[in-house]
Amino acid sequence: MKTKAFTLIELLVVIAIIAILGAILFPVFAQVREKARATSCISNQHQMGLAITMYRNDYDDINPRYRLCPDKAADPLCTTASPTVLSGPNEIWWAPYDTSIGPEPAVLPSNYQGLKAGFLQPYVKNQQIFRCPSYRQGQVGYAMSYIYNGPMGQPDAFVTNPEVYFVWDHKRTPGCANTSTVPCSTSSNVPGFRGPFPLDQDQKGSTPHTHYPNRHSEGFNGMRYDGSAKYRKYTNLNTNGNTSKDFLANVEP
Questions:
Q1: Residue 50: per-residue pLDDT
Q2: What is the pLDDT of residues 159-202, one digit of tens each?
């Protein structure tokens, strides 16, 4: 009586089929997981937008600034302070952040207290919203614009462009402006102020995509002044000085 069994050829065919299916499905699963993280990131930014609105309502319609440096008597608004160097013990950012331990500490604090909790702490219930699910290397996964003619620190009536970016995905620090050596026409006549970081410079160098990351399927999420948060390809950004409607608050959208 003969027993039925798989031949070697049949086994190899089955293994090959499983390998092919795995090669097809695994990237799809990865994309689905990233899509879920991107959705969570957009939710974080929506909550930040609500917190900023509540902050503005409590402070005579004035928007929060990205940071204050009260220990620098000649520079209370950090216009010349380095974003990666502690300006003093009373330094405070808009988000939970501590410059004294560096932008990318080996161990992230589990909970910030006092000044290190940031301007928006009274308006949020969970500090985890400041950490993008797709970027866990730094204390904060987002940055607030502090360019010249941006919405930061300005009265609500100053902003005529509701689509201007206020907070978006970022690497390194919770503040973003033109930290390059190339002069920017937007702010060249205003000492201590900066314009949008040039897109072409952000795509090259030793740490590309720092200011406009590609962490979400070759793009990033950004929160506009009107509170809407959306995904966008970084290649479509306009960072050209006085014509940049993506970053200038006092222009027609």
A1: 95
A2: 999 999 999 999 888 999 887 666 566 555 565 567 888 888 88
**Residue 170 DSSP one-character state:** -
- The DSSP-derived string for 57-122 is HHTTTBPPPSEE-TT-TT-TT-SSS-TTS---TT-EESSS--GGG-SS-SS--S---GGGG-TTGG
- Using alpha carbons, select from 96, 145, 100, 139 the residue that is nearest to residue 119: 96
Does the pTM exceed 0.85?
A: no
Closest CA to 132 of 97, 168, 96, 105: 168
Quickly count: other Cβ atoms within 10 Å of residue 104's Cβ: 12
49-58 LR contacts (CB < 8 Å, sep 24+): 49/166, 49/167, 49/223, 49/227, 49/228, 49/229, 50/123, 50/227, 51/120, 51/123, 51/124, 52/120, 52/166, 52/167, 53/227, 54/123, 55/119, 55/120, 55/123, 56/156
Q: Would you say residue 91 has pLDDT above 70?
A: yes
Residue among 103, 241, 250, 126 nearest 185 (CA): 241
Whole-Å CA distances, 98 to 16, 44, 93, 111, 213: 52, 20, 8, 11, 22
